[in-house]
Amino acid sequence: MARQARRVRRELTESEREEYRRLRATLETEREEILAEARRRKAAHGAAAAELRRAFELLKAERIAQGLSLADMQDRTGIGRSALSRLENDAEPNPTIVTLTRYAEALGKKLRVILTEP
């Protein structure tokens, strides 16, 4: 028989209520700044994800141009076919640099990572 957690509720002290009100007021004054920063980070993440998708589009095109199947890539990389398929087709793949390097090397290519100014 599963035990069910009991909800315990206690009243806040006046000093706790005052601290809560102070924090809410601070949050409200910083709200637009917080939202703007969140939007900026989301856009940066979206741009990075798009670049990663483009890298996998290029790798997939190279694989196909070389006449290699996912089974061939599995043999060359040691990465399962289903994982390779997800990397090639997912909207937001999240591979490690090691995975990208293994995939590129299996195609006779070299992975280069370049840092630039924004």
List keywords for this structure.
mainly alpha, 67% helix, 4 helices, 118 residues, 434 Repressor (Amino-terminal Domain)
What report would you give on this structure?
The chain is an all-alpha fold and 118 residues long. Helix content is 67%, strand content 0%. It has helices spanning 14-65, 70-77, 81-89, 97-106. The longest helix has 52 residues, at 14-65. The model has no long low-confidence stretch (mean pLDDT 91).
Task: Characterize the largest beta sheet: strand count, sense, and whether it forms a barrel.
Answer: none
CATH homology superfamily name? lambda repressor-like DNA-binding domains
CATH topology call: 434 Repressor (Amino-terminal Domain)
Query: What's the helical proportion of residues?
Result: 55-70%
Poorly predicted sequence stretches spanning 5 or more consecutive residues: none
Q: At the first level of CATH, what is the class? A: Mainly Alpha
Radius of gyration: 24 Å
Number of strands: 0
What CATH architecture do you see? Orthogonal Bundle
Gross morphology: elongated
Strand share of the residues? under 5%
Order of helices and strands: HHHH
Write down the oligomeric state: single chain
Distance between the termini: 58 Å
Integer tally of domains = 1
Average pLDDT, rounded to a whole number, is: 91
Please state the structural category: mainly alpha
